[in-house]
Amino acid sequence: MSGTLRRLTKLHHYHYPVVGVVGLVYTVAFHGPGTHQLSIGPVEFDAFYAAVIGFGALIVFSLTDGYYDAAEYGIDESEE
Question: Which among 5, 27, 31, 38 has the fewest CB atoms less than 10 Å away?
Answer without folding.
Answer: 38
